[in-house]
Amino acid sequence: MTPFFRTTAGWLLAGLTLAAPLAATAQKKPAARKPATNAESAIRQADIKRDLFALADDHFRGREGGTLDELKASAWLADRIRETGMLPAGDDGTYFQFFQLQRTRLTKSSTLSMGTHQLRVNHDAAIVTPVNAAVNAPLVYVGTATPEELAKVDIKGKAVALQISGAPTDGVSYRRYLFGKLRTQAADLLKAGAVAIVFVSDAKAEAVYDHWGHIFERGNYGLPGDANLRVLSQAPTVWLPASALSWVQQAGQQFVADLKVETFAYPSVNIVAKMPGTDAQLKSEYVLFSTHQDHDGTRAPVAGDSIYNGADDNATGCAALLAIMRAFKQQPARRSALFVYHGAEERGLIGSRYYSAHPTVPEKSIVAVLNAEMMGRNAADSAALLGSTPPHRNSSDLVNTALAANQQGPKFKLDTEWDKATHPEGWYFRSDHLPYARLGVPAIMYTSLLHVDYHTPRDEASRIDYTKLTKMTQWMYLTGWAVANRTAPPAREPGFKLER
């Protein structure tokens, strides 16, 4: 609130009043500082729509992390950022911060058969974790693997087939429950002597298999040294569609697998830009506006479309940040604004994990992170602010600033359920604010939440509510503008600790 020139003026006035009559001192008070005028008018729906349609076009083939398509989209974004007038803030005077994305996957020469069925690995059958394995063993079917069913079969040295069953009882989503079950039930059967596990979907699991089965083809991703990238030689876990149940149950079949793992290093990239602040002291501090530019690339066709364009996830965030840049260029704030497009978010928050560990500005200079994640769908009058509810709230100060900006601007009805620790989707843990929050940096996420087109080829630019997206962008900007102009940075929550 009190920049240096106001403090100096105050000392001068105080000195003058020593020689002035008491009655005159009341007339010598310095004029109140007028709040800086924001540039919200620079955020235009037409600009946002134009940028989003371009980025979510088939030209970029879904912008999959670690591919030339992601790099091509990143170069396009850097050109748009330069046009806004933002300065480079990446490495070596550029807009880019490259990092190595490590990947492990099964080789295309890996083979799998059960009886007379030759199965294409990660097409006809999903291998849950890439492993080196050579198995030739009898296949036995044990129903749903209840204790009674297992007691009737000797599973030692066998490949054990079972049908998925059950449902969550602790409030988690069915998808999270299912993926956990694939791990834990397989581990129990392997401990009992099985040499391979074959899960067959029931009707409920089939819906997840249809939607998410393609992810296993990609294998595992991470930064070099991540635990999930260790290549293991162990018993494989296979997941089959429900249609396989009729033949998996047949007796006298042999399970034969020859699985080999290969590993690659790919380049991925963060795009980093800044607008320097106007205050001589506060310009060394940053309000970080965050998003990610990647999506799922090209996958198996759905209704004839194989390109997952990711219009809402997350071209909305990309277009929003470009609009916010134009506003900060038109009217800079006292603090500097830092803009980071994180690469490879869909591969496990890889870009934000890397940038938060290797920031191009001092970590302590980042006073707040405002993250844009899927902001253009669902009810026109509703949205969510993640990081606003304990235990995810690490700065009540920042949250209150965001809530005030919502009242000043779009006046969204705010959904608080998705931010609760008990919400089955665990949505708070699935976007780029998380690595910063783990470091204690005040961090929040702006989102309009999931929808039926999430991670499908139907997430297209034509389905975005552009009026809503513009309002979401304005809300995010108004919050960042307020933080960038106040004298004190947002206070951090004492005792902040995430539940996992």
UniProtKB/TrEMBL annotation:
A GO biological-process term: proteolysis
Residue ranges occupied by any Peptidase M28 domain in the UniProt entry: 270-476
Pfam family for this entry, one: Peptidase_M28
Keywords from the UniProt entry: Signal
Domain of life from the UniProt record: Bacteria
Gene Ontology molecular function: metalloexopeptidase activity
Signal peptide feature range: 1-26
InterPro entries: M28_fam (IPR045175), PA_dom_sf (IPR046450), Peptidase_M28 (IPR007484)
Coiled-coil blocks: none
Xref: SUPFAM superfamilies: PA domain, Zn-dependent exopeptidases
Protein name: Peptidase M28
